[in-house]
Amino acid sequence: MLTELPPLNSLRAFEAAARLQSMTLASKELHVTHGAVSKQIRVLEDYLGFALFVRLHKKVSLTDEAKRYLPHVQAALQTLSSATSDLRRQPSKPQTLDINVLPSLTINWLIPRMEQFKSRHPHLYVDLSIGDFAVDFSQGRYDIAIRSCTAIPKGANYIKLMDEDLCLVCAPSLAPKLQNIEDINHVTLLKHTTRPELWEYWAEKVGLTLTQAQTFGVEHFYMLSQAAASGMGAALIPRFFIEEQLANGSLVIPFDAPFTSPYRYYLLTPKSPSLPLKAQAFIDWLLEVFAPYRH
């Protein structure tokens, strides 16, 4: 056991002040105040039980004990610095990060951005799969999952990523038939079959009674966006998911009727007081790219 180790900050302050023979110059080198350097040296002196410096008017002089101590401190700090530098220069050990994400979030949004994450963390091999099932982290299959739901998830640590902001969209060819909210009752309503209540939620929000019985249902937002772009009807789709289609004009917003659905997107991790560094690296990156969508 290493039982005779003084505080590292005190050793750094002592080495700098001894080498420069000045508390002021040491404080500038270490980017701390003059008082902080003095305090750290007093801590070291108390720990050792003897004085290290003779304080003069504008500089300091080492005591005999400090002169004997200084070369050993410098050698130890240099060894630690060199070892740390060598370790940081070595490529990180490859690791696998298993992530399971909603199909709608994966296809149009996450995959086009993953190269940015890979370039930052080339030692991480990402195993990305899609799913919309309840995640059981006790099985040890996934490090991270992303889900959407209407209530806070149970059995996992969670971070809320964003609300689900929907916009009403259609193909440009259908837009002339949708001049106002009431016109919705004259076109086919494209429904997300796992969220069939979205149109009713939207209609209640905008004050419309739905009378259109003609609907067409699909299972995922990706399929919904394709059906809308082909002119099959109007759809309610998260804005983040169709940014590219809105930009290239394959989908348009015929009139402004935004709607925040009851669903929220959550990042889920196993119940644990701490996370592996590989998982934390992905979370930090994801929160950064999600920042424009969070409110």
Automatic annotation (TrEMBL):
Xref: CDD domains = PBP2_GcdR_like
Q: Which domain of life is it from?
A: Bacteria
Q: One Pfam family of this protein, by short name?
A: HTH_1
Keywords recorded for this protein, A-Z: DNA-binding, Transcription, Transcription regulation
Q: Which stretches make up the HTH lysR-type domain?
A: 6-63
Q: What InterPro entries would the database entry show?
A: LysR-type_TF_proteobact-type, LysR_HTH_N, LysR_subst-bd, WH-like_DNA-bd_sf, WH_DNA-bd_sf
Keyword DNA-binding (UniProt): yes
Transcription in keyword set: yes
Q: Which family does it belong to?
A: Belongs to the LysR transcriptional regulatory family.
The name under which this protein is listed is LysR family transcriptional regulator
Natural source organism = Shewanella scandinavica
